[in-house]
Amino acid sequence: MLRELYIIRHGQPQSGTGLAYDRIPGPPLSSAGHTEAQESAAYLMNRGIGLIYTSPLERTLQTARIIAATLNVPMLVDPGLAEHRGDEKYEDVKTRVRDLLARVDSQPVESVAFVTHGSPIKAFLQILSFESIDLVHYTYPDGNHSPTAGIWHGQRDLFGVWHMDMAFQPTVAMTASRPSL
User: What is the value of pTM for the model shown?
Assistant: First the structure.
């Protein structure tokens, strides 16, 4: 049963690529995004993560590869973590995330990381908090609830209740995108 999780937003993507942001492959990481991913990987060292799940879009794959290589843990691509598509309802994103959580929770791993995008992160936080999390103080550019390569940490208590907190923000993200309070 899952006892601990880390929800990681991809590093900063390249702009001006002409690639659709919500479709595979999507834009790759910028040089700042690579640095952010390396900082996130350093933060995650020695945290007992057994497996990394990632969205299939290029910016998340690159972020997850950096983290997986640093932690020396396997990585699985899961379409449930994909970007919220323009033709998709937010409730569909929540359904994808809920289904993924159920699958992962039935596995024997106790600590995992998810590398994903802003909308799935919001879905994770709402689902794990039974819709009670207050995200008003966690609003970053474009309405995201995590900066690029930011990390939310969740721990499940003895009663099965998840406790979530913003655990890490890369220095690049901290200087480029302060939350609006």
Answer: 0.93
